Amino acid sequence: MSDLFGTRRPAPVSNEDAQLSHIVPLPRISLQVFCETPEFAAAMEAAAADRRMSKVHVKVQMGGAPAAVEAYSEAATPNVIAIESVGSRDMLLENLDRLSSVCDPDTKVVVIGHVNDVLLYRELMRRGISEYLIAPVDHLTFIQSLSELFHGENAEPLGRVIAVYGAKGGCGASTIAHNLAWTIARHLEIATVIVDLDLAYGTAGLDFNQDPPQGIVDAVSTPERLDATLLERLLSPLADNLNLLAAPATLDRLFDFEEHAFDQVLDHLRSSVPCIVLDLAHQWSASVRHLLLAADHIVLVAEPDLANLRNAKSLHELLKSARPNDAHPRLVLNKTGVPKRPEIGVADFAKAVGAEATLIPYDAQLFGQAANNGQMISEIQAGGKHAEIFQLLARHLTGRSEIRKTKFALPLKLPFLKKIASRKG
């Protein structure tokens, strides 16, 4: 009965041994899980909600191996079956033998057992079981194991996606995105692609003094033709290690793409480029929400005023809740210290949002000169404090080093701040 359940694994994986530092997202597969304990069922529900499982069709039910045998006696088996077993060794093997008679040969079977038994593990591998995990199994360990089944333990890591989004229009999110990408490419020497997703008003071409004839809309408009060769032709080189997938920046047509329209483009980019920076338009649509939730890192840009605070708090709470297994969005407080402008204090703003903030001081001459000349901040003032801020932010987001954390301990003093800070998302 060798290989009835799929490929064999070289060694069992326990919670302690699982390497969770980088989990490659799962492909579009079907997964059915048969649980015997509430704890494992809860872990599987948490796994199903993780962004790395967004393409996986998951069904979780109770009943263990007997329920699996009954379910597939009259139905086709999915790509992966996960079975929890709390019974005896002999009962588990008997149920798996029965399952093999109704299971498609290409189906992978993962068994979650409650006994650390080397002899049982060897017998399961002899029967062609794909993986044996020892309970308790948390959701990230389970996702990691599935990822290795489809990508291999030594698979090359996919490029990381950094989504930059403004809490309010005009807060400078695009400027932050472009300077961040430039810094990652030039200072950290990491190949990077900027994807300008402000389709009607995108400024990436202007900021880099380019006028690309093609870009992101050409890529998503003909998905049946999209491949690595076409995508490479659509990219516009900006500098060493830096390319742009430009927005059309035209009002000649309306752009109303569906939620997953950009997934294929990003899949191609992630497989070939170490870093992708998304310059997202300030709008709230299904596609924008999906891109934010699917990103590896999120940079949330805001200015120190009340509208930005309200929006930043709402966004931060939503994204933190929807992405429980990921780093919280990185808050960048832009244009701080504008002369004669009443501003919310940095400590008050950060505490109300519930996040630490990276500060970018206001400098009209520096940023105005860069925008008008089609240059980046570091090209004009390479050794300045703003260039250093972008370098620290780039290093933090790419994992090259840690940013020194700033603690905000000042109390909230203003009534409207207290009201927003106490509001439940």
For the largest beta-sheet, the strand count, sense and barrel status come to: 8 strands, mixed
Number of helices: 17
Strand content range: 15-25%
- Helical content, roughly? 25-40%
The CATH top-level class label of the largest domain: Alpha Beta
Order of helices and strands: EHEHEHEHEHEHEHHHEEHEHEHEHEHHHH
Task: Specify the overall morphology.
Answer: elongated
The SS-based structural class is alpha/beta
Query: Residue ranges: pLDDT <50 for 5 or more in a row?
Result: 1-21, 402-417
Task: Note the gap between the termini.
Answer: 53 Å
CATH third-tier fold name of the largest domain = Rossmann fold
Beta strands, count: 13
Residue-averaged pLDDT, rounded? 85
CATH homologous superfamily title of the largest domain = P-loop containing nucleotide triphosphate hydrolases
Evaluate the radius of gyration: 25 Å
The total tally of domains equals 2
CATH architecture of the largest domain: 3-Layer(aba) Sandwich
Largest sheet: spatial strand order:
8-9-7-10-6-11-12-13
